[in-house]
Design a protein that fits this description.
This protein is mostly helical. It folds into two domains: about 1-50; about 65-350, no CATH class. About 65% of the residues lie in helices and about 0% in strands. The chain has 15 helices and no strands. The protein has helices at about 1-20, 30-50, 65-80, 85-95, 100-105, 115-135, 140-165, 180-190, 190-210, 220-230, 245-255, 260-275, 300-310, 340-350, 355-390. Helix 3 (about 65-80) runs antiparallel to helix 6 (about 115-135) and helix 6 runs antiparallel to helix 7 (about 140-165). Residues about 1-50 and about 370-375 have low confidence and may be disordered.
């Protein structure tokens, strides 16, 4: 679009010059000159806007409607209560989870329920998505979903770290970048300290190669890159393929733009892109929101808005079908608090040795210690430089 408009501007310029040449000796030359520059300005302005729109692709024509999403969500939650919900309640009451594989029998039962908890969390997230789309308070359900997602992620991190000790010479690579939604949701809900801990663990998991799908998903890479840029965490060596998506790249490069007016086109383009990432995954590609959840929940953009708020920048108000209801602004700040079932499951896990702080320390402790040491050394050198400067 911008190329076409730029061409029109050039055509306008040539045409104007021709008109002035033909009427050089007329008394209307000044009027024609003014017309020339006005037309050039208008077309050039539109050409520039085309660049700022960063190639908007429009809303995906088969994007799930609210009616379809409502039906699917109710079916999903009903099915979850009949299957995963029953299994989680059984675990919470008995502390057991049925397994037959010899490699799994010796493991603590809580290490086997990460997928159950993850699916349960997605059900809560679907309900939050529907409530937010209707303009209702959805933060509590989001908080409960994020709390369950965090438990699932922590179990997965523990299993990946223990795997080489249990199976010498082998590494586990079964994490998915879909876990980055936990990071986005935690930060969007205003949990800075907890978000930094989760983010550090995910970046460390990326470094270690735990994500089997890290060569996919531009939106999830945007979340992780945004976290690193905001928090100061040293980024890993990113996979090249996901970073080739221009829409998310441009939003990342401009996320600290002070002008809401100039940032808005990038946000709108990312809104469009989100709807196109809701297709079913298959031979044509893999999509972030292919399972029917988070399809109308712009969590990556709500995370963006929260981070901009924290660094003192205003957020643009955009007109887009995904930014409706309660999703037109940042959610209210709320801590991650599990619901009754997740709380019962967590209590049973703790009895079996689950320790969230120990998992974090084991996973990121050495790196955090080195960062702290470097920071302390830097401050000491800075103070020494200031002191020696005064002595001189």
């Amino acid at each position: 679009m911008s190329t076409l408009l730029a061409g029109l501007a050039k055509f306008c310029q040539i045409s104007s010059i021709s008109v002035i040449f033909l009427f050089r000796n007329t008394s209307n030359e000044e009027l024609l000159c003014s017309l020339k520059f006005d037309l050039i300005f208008i077309f050039t302005l539109f050409a520039g806007l085309g660049d700022d729109m960063c190639g908007r692709i429009g809303v995906y024509k088969s994007w799930l409607s609210w009616k379809t999403l409502d039906k699917r969500a109710l079916e999903y939650v009903a099915r979850m209560n009949e299957t995963d919900g029953v299994a989680l309640r059984h675990y919470a009451e008995t502390g057991s989870y049925p397994v037959s594989h010899p490699d799994l029998v010796s493991m603590p039962a809580f290490e086997l329920i990460d997928n159950l908890v993850h699916r349960y969390a997605n059900g809560l997230g679907l309900l939050a998505e529907l409530r937010g789309g209707r303009g209702e308070r959805y933060e509590e359900l989001c908080s409960q979903s994020a709390a369950a997602l965090k438990i699932s992620f922590m179990i997965s991190a523990l299993k990946h770290e223990r795997f080489p000790r249990r199976h010498k010479g082998r590494n586990l690579k079964k994490m998915s970048l879909k876990d980055s939604l936990l990071l986005a949701l935690t930060l969007a809900l205003g949990n800075e300290v907890e978000g930094k801990q989760i983010g550090r663990m995910m970046i460390e998991a990326y470094r270690r190669g735990y994500f089997f799908d890290k060569d996919q998903y531009p939106v999830f890479h945007f979340i992780l890159r945004l976290f690193c840029d905001w928090s100061g965490e040293e980024p890993p060596e990113w996979e090249a393929n996901p970073l080739q998506e221009s829409i998310m790249n441009k939003l990342f490069l401009n996320w600290k733009e002070e002008s809401c007016e100039r940032l808005a086109p990038y946000v709108l383009a990312a809104c469009d892109y989100h709807t196109h990432r809701c297709k079913p995954s298959g031979i044509k590609g893999f999509y972030e929101f292919c399972n029917g959840d988070w399809t109308r929940f712009p969590v990556e953009l709500l995370m963006l808005y929260r981070l901009r708020y924290w660094i003192g920048l205003e957020n643009p108000q955009v007109d887009h079908p995904i930014m409706v209801g309660a999703f037109t602004q940042m959610p209210e700040k709320i801590p991650l608090v599990p619901d009754a079932l997740t709380s019962a499951v967590l209590a049973q896990m703790v009895k079996q040795g689950y320790n969230e702080k120990a998992i974090y320390a084991s996973f990121c402790g050495r790196r955090v210690e080195l960062m702290t040491l470097f920071s302390s050394s830097f401050m000491m050198l800075k103070k020494y430089a200031a002191l020696t400067g005064k002595l001189r």
